[in-house]
User: Which sequence fits this backbone?
């Protein structure tokens, strides 16, 4: 990425990568094209001729613009060395790594078992639902310098923490981590009799690790050389039942967990002759089979309570440990609390201490879930006979869920950054730059990033390959719009906008051409399965709304309301970014925005008078069902197969099902404040027969034929009734907008805003208190959390609702 050719981001003409605005393009009518610069038309024509060829031969070729991560505002090891190391391993319960492709990696495992039955053991390492932890997550994390995490099992609790510091005199950056444990049960519920911590260091690079055992030293008991930067690993305190170690060579970091598990063997208990321990094999540190070591594991079998510090710092640095660590951590917590109140003002708004602790934890889990990944995506296109590798790339990104989705998701990340940029815009700048650098020559970004062996090991094969025709909502425009004023005023902010503008431009025009519908100013999500008969309604994964019901028979007559509204948002932001960098394309984007917010055109394409709502349009049957049929296999066995039955003839028509998609003209604040249709939407939104519940807005109306209907025999309903916080946030945000603007619907919008906001905050907090987690979605009947947990991705938007930061 760093070797891409320079491009003039402030060019007065449009770039060559801009695809042609064909007759199917949603925006450019002949009248608007005549006003476009000749160079713009020539550029789009050239790109149109080339696009088929590039998709076949260059789907894995980077975009030619300079890397956005080279912008002055983006952190790197030279401009901001404090960002080099961090808790950038969200998929493990506790780990540290550097933001480098071949990093040294630090991690924690712990093992629990009964000393009378060592065959039944549990190793904790990777965040997994199967571990059934009572609770885990960051209670403090500022995204940069420190973090505190609490982990609760049934009978004991652990606390992991870290803090980073710059060594005096420019000596570099180091960090100290602490792991402590205490029993939490009573006399009848004691912790497991066998318990051990395993600290490991793994080197992804070529340099061998050289472990050293320092004899007779409390402050330098253990050390590992070869970590880069003359850094060492120490245990300043050591009170344990037994100490063991292992050095080995493991080819893939994703194999660490299973490898360590296989090495454990039985040993005598030093205090109880009738008991046994599980210990590492104490392999010789040098000359062991397998060549130079890239893995070192230190095992401490310990008793509760305990506390151990791990230090990684340049040799001449004096790292804080023991009491000094405690004092420094107290200072950072105090500073965090003051800044958190300044940024979000929850105490000033009257929230209780328990609610503020919840909000702080939700935020800390979001920013503490930022990871660094490196690897290649697997991509394909309609022109390729088999998938190909993308170029090797880095990604610095938050993740939706540490336990289930510990990787980057394009449309989730825009919502994540709405929260994070309120805390630290420079983190958001960093994240956006990394994502934009994943753009290929056509302006496409793979929507799901599965980079590196560890990420790949957590994803089923069918989800690995990314399709170059498939889009994802461009939610980064939400975050950019929210922070645009800050970037204009910030030193090097304009430089950043100038750096990313060519990529934003390519991204916009990729959407504007590849997702265009038959009618001018219409769009539809490409990639739906047109031939399936095994789904009640073919999924639209590209939209982010998965099984939300669209037209029953996908084809090119479709018009998807949400995508049109996303592009209206994008055009508005592109106009303002172009103006900020003084680019003449601002006129084109302003005209595009004018067309996409033209209510007459919007109503013509998407308003159904019969249904009294904005709707999708397509080839649709209003009556379909899944029916079990019996089929004879080649082995003369009958199997049950569920197939869709069309009970009413299809026709081109509006899709009548009311839900999140129906709200998009309001969600994106496209409707004027005096629009009669805004009043209609507000009335429908408040109807309990449609979307309104005591816990938030359900995703699909309760009177829809698809409400809570499984899409296949195996797929449970997903976006067919559940309450999703990202869409509820957009609803709350838009209601705040309409409730603050003078107009005929102001009073109603304000009243709905206050009640909806209150319902959402109360239920998310209540479920957190009850379960210890925030959830992927919430049941529309009971309010109970559902799906993945902890889901501290876009559910963390509750913080913005609490602080009313829109």
Assistant:
């Amino acid at each position: 990425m760093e070797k891409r050719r320079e491009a003039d981001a402030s060019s007065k003409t449009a770039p060559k990568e801009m695809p042609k605005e064909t007759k199917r393009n949603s925006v450019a009518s002949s009248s608007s094209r005549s006003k476009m610069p000749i160079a713009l038309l020539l550029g789009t024509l050239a790109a149109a001729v080339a696009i088929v060829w590039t998709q076949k031969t260059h789907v894995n070729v980077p975009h030619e613009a300079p890397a956005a991560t080279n912008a002055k505002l983006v952190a790197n090891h030279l401009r901001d060395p404090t960002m080099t190391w961090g808790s950038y391993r969200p998929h493990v319960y506790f780990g540290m790594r550097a933001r480098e492709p071949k990093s040294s990696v630090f991690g924690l495992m712990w093992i629990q078992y009964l000393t009378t039955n060592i065959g039944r053991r549990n190793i904790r390492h990777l965040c997994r639902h199967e571990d059934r932890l009572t609770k885990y997550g960051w209670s403090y994390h500022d995204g940069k310098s420190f973090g505190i995490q609490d982990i609760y099992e049934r009978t004991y609790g652990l606390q992991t923490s870290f803090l980073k510091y710059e060594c005096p005199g420019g000596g570099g950056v180091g960090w100290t981590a602490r792991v402590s444990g205490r029993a939490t049960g009573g006399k009848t519920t004691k912790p497991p009799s066998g318990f051990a911590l395993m600290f490991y260091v793994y080197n992804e690079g070529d340099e061998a690790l050289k472990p050293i055992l320092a004899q007779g030293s409390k402050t330098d008991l253990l050390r590992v050389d070869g970590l880069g930067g003359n850094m060492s690993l120490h245990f300043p305190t050591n009170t344990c039942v037994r100490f063991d170690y292992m050095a080995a060579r493991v080819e893939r970091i994703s194999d660490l967990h299973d490898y360590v598990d296989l090495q454990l063997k039985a040993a005598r208990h030093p205090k109880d002759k009738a008991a046994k321990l599980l210990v590492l094999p104490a392999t010789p540190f040098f000359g062991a089979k397998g060549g130079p070591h890239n893995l070192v594991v230190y095992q401490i079998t310990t008793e509760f309570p305990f506390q151990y510090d791990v230090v990684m710092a340049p040799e001449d640095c004096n790292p804080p440990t023991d009491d000094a660590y405690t004092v420094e951590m107290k200072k950072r917590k105090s500073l965090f609390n003051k800044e958190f109140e300044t940024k979000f003002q929850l105490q000033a708004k009257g929230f209780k201490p328990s609610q503020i602790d919840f909000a702080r934890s939700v935020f800390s889990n979001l920013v503490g879930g930022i990871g660094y990944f490196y690897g290649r995506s697997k991509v394909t296109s309609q022109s390729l006979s088999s998938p190909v590798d993308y170029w090797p790339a880095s990604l610095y990104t938050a993740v939706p869920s540490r336990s289930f989705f510990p990787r980057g998701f394009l449309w989730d990340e825009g919502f994540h950054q709405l929260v994070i940029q309120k805390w630290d815009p420079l983190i958001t700048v960093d994240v956006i730059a990394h994502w934009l650098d994943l753009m290929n020559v056509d302006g496409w970004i793979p929507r799901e990033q599965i980079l590196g062996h560890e990420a790949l090991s957590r994803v089923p094969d069918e989800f690995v390959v990314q399709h170059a025709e498939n889009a994802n909502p461009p939610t980064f425009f939400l975050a950019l719009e929210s922070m645009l004023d800050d970037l204009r005023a910030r030193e090097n902010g304009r430089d950043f906008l100038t750096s990313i503008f060519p990529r934003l431009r390519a991204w916009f025009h990729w959407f504007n051409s590849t997702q265009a519908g038959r009618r001018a100013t219409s769009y539809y999500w490409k990639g739906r399965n047109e031939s399936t008969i095994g789904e009640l309604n073919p999924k639209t994964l590209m939209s982010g709304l998965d099984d939300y019901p669209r037209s029953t028979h996908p084809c090119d007559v479709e018009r998807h309301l949400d995508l049109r509204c996303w592009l209206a948002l994008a055009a508005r932001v592109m106009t303002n970014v172009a103006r900020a960098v003084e680019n003449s394309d601002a006129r084109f984007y302003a005209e595009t925005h004018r067309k996409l917010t033209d209510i007459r055109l919007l109503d013509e394409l998407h308003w159904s008078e019969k249904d009294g709502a904005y709707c999708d349009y397509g080839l649709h049957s209003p009556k379909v069902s899944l029916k079990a049929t019996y089929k004879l296999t080649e082995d003369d066995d009958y199997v049950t197969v569920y197939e869709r039955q069309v009970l009413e003839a299809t026709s081109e028509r509006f899709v009548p099902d009311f839900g999140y998609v129906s709200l998009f003209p309001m969600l994106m604040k496209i409707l004027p404040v005096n629009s009669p249709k805004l009043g209609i939407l507000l009335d429908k939104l408040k109807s309990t027969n449609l979307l309104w519940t005591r816990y938030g807005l359900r995703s699909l109306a309760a009177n829809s034929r698809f409400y809570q209907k499984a899409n296949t025999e195996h797929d449970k309903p997903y976006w067919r009734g559940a309450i999703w916080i990202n869409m509820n946030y957009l609803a709350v945000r838009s209601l705040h907008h309409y409730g603050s603007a003078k107009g005929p619907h102001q009073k109603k919008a304000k009243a709905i805003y206050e009640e909806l906001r209150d319902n959402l905050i109360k239920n998310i907090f209540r479920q957190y208190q009850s379960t210890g987690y925030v959830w992927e979605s919430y049941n529309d009947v009971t309010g109970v959390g559902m799906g993945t947990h902890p889901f501290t991705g876009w559910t963390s938007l509750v913080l913005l609702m609490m602080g009313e930061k829109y």
